[in-house]
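Lecture 7, part B: from sequences to assemblies.

Below are the input chains for today's worked example.
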Amino acid sequence: MSETHNKAIGVETIGMTMRFGAFIALDDVSIRVPAGSFHALLGENGAGKSTLVKCMMGFYHPTSGEILVDGRQVAIASPRDASALGLGMVYQHFTLVPSLTGAENLVISREKVPGVIDWRKERTALAQFMERMPFKLPLDVKVAELAAGEKQKLEIIKQLYLGRNFLVLDEPTSVLTPGEAQEVLGLVRGMTKAGDLTVLMISHKFHEVTAFADDITVLRKGRLTGTGKVSDLTHKAMAAMMIGDQPIAALDSRAAPKPDAEIVLKVKALKAPDRTGLKSIDIADLGVRSGEIVGIAGISGNGQKEFLEVLAGQRPRNNGEVMVRGAAYAATRAEARALNVRLIPEEPLKNACAPRMTVAENIAFRTFDVDGSGKPVSWISAGAIKAFSARLVEQFKVKTASLSSPIASLSGGNVQRAVLARELTGEVDLLIVSNPCFGLDFSAVAEIRARIMKARNAGAAVLLMSEDLDELLELSDRILVMSDGALVYETPIAQASVQTIGEHMAGHH
Amino acid sequence: METTDIGLWGVPLAMLGGAIRVSTPFIFVSLGEAITERSGRINLGLEGTLVFGAMSAYAVAVMTGSPWLGLLAAAVAGLCFGLFHGWICKFPKVNDIAIGIALMLFGTGLAFFFGKPFIQPSAPDLPAIPFGAWSDIPQVQAALNVNVLFLIGAALAVFLWWAFRNTRVGLIVRVVGDSADAARAMGLNPNTVRLLATGVGGALAGIGGAYLSLYYPGSWTERISSGQGLMAVALVIFARWNPLGCFAAALLFGGAGALGPALQSVGVTQGYYLFYAAPYILTLIIMIATSSPSRTLAGAPGELSITK
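Predicted structure of the full complex, as structure tokens:
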């Protein structure tokens, strides 16, 4: 192992330009990240953030532009060169090998690994290395058994272990609880303050940027649109740099909740096996009233997905009942139609669409087999499907080349718009939504949230499961926390505290 | 060999001997398959490799008079089959299972084609070590007459178990099998690692085949393998991709396979044919008992096409 306790290094790009054919992904971008600083890189999906960092990491070769490391011009032709200069990247998705232990992951990622590994020696070296780190982690446990926060810490530790003192963190907290995010970023912040580390963080979350970063750089459509000290900028100013002057769909104001409104969805003593088959989910009692949004918070893997699958009829339940407007509900097509139950699962392309069927067909899934008055039809009219879909595509602003393109060819935001169009058209009494904005950009997120709020104000009972706490805080009337397969905490939105919710998500109660 | 009547003791003894004798090809094929699967690919073609290995070992042994050259020929033939599988599978959108089935048929077909002239002549056997020489009882002697390949197989299982944790190569194979993305991030080429892992797996299966034709049953016929290559693949899953588990499971299968002949030898005259089916029934029972509709397999390499 090389001596890793070097000092932080500063990195600068000058006039970075990257063209893919006629498309300019990056247009003359210069950023300066001084040694020991915490720099945030902001921008919408497709703004060029990842192109920029991939150029810095040697994955792409910029069409023109220079990179300076500690003031000296360097040539970075491959990730290996970047790593030799001390530049490392922590990806949004974990790159650790799940079935290996932490120690095995660290050792095997090294440049030079001896043919036969002397574990006693390695362990001693690792223990010495870990003593210098602010993170404490069990290294003898399989990575698959670590919590998300621990994995993220291990990713960072791995980069430091490999002697990299300039780290790009790509949305490092997207899979963490608020508490874990605070802890990880706090520790990283401490290391930058001590001059051991320089960080360039890609993020969408303004509150994290404000709390931890020194400076920001904002990209939009491949251009640098703003830069400055975090202390001089408001969230509004950052948002303006990110999205320019395009209009953002505003949330409907929240219609006053009616505490005595009808309970549309009622779940009692529901038990179902989870996907490992070893544990089960157990929902004791849940009611969602007409005209309210009930948010379910939780770290992924705590049974939300299984709960949604039970409600969607994709997973058998062991016992318990699900009632919609007082009638037992088993998620058959007939029941969903009679009771006006609509569903927007996460990853809509995978879970709510037939990817290779056309946009028109996908939009017509709920209605293609009935006529105008709800009677089943024996002959399906392609013309009616087209006309119906064309109207919805127009109304929900789905951007598609044509109605007969396969829905898989649409961008993530437009697939979600198409699914929303299908699910929110007609009478909606109960709407079940899961992570509706995952991976979508700013304007699509705003629009989709506005649609959900509109459905609530029109009297639908909405059950919203999300791993994004900000989203829940923005939309919900009540927030429940799901942990280890059960609903463990409930708070009305007025009294909701991120701190308390985070603690319940982490199972600390 | 004159038989001494040792009564019902003959059954467990014959099963022990049978386990050692019958299990050797299982050990080699399943260890080979374990290496391949740990790297993230399934090679179902090992049945064909086994048969082709048996044929080439026998043919070379007949022609040169040396069983060891035969063994080498089988290993090389197996290596070629493995590399061929690994090479085809590196192309995008190629399904490793379909290629495996094709190679299984190709291997057996090719072996029958080239093996025709070798059905008659007899080849020298691979040597065995008489661990039972201390005993006067012929059954004990027969049961403890252990072929060197069995011992090599046992040593290999322990070595692989150790190597998967303690060597660079072992860790690399596991990394590639569990997460191709992580491997690429480390600068490893998953296709190369899998190509070599499939090659080594094929070579081991070829050695398993050499044991069939050069020791037990000890001759080349077209019905030499009764699906051992395929059963070994199931056995790897049952053993949870652990080389020591593969060894134990191979012994178990070998013992079950010896049940029919053992019963016959102690004078059970009716229904013992049923016990010839024991390994197959055991496979079924094990697969049913260890599977679950709602749970994924523990310990499965993350990149395997059947568990992904």
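Note for the exam: Chain B touches chain A through 23 residues (CB under 8 Å). Keep this in mind when comparing with the next example.
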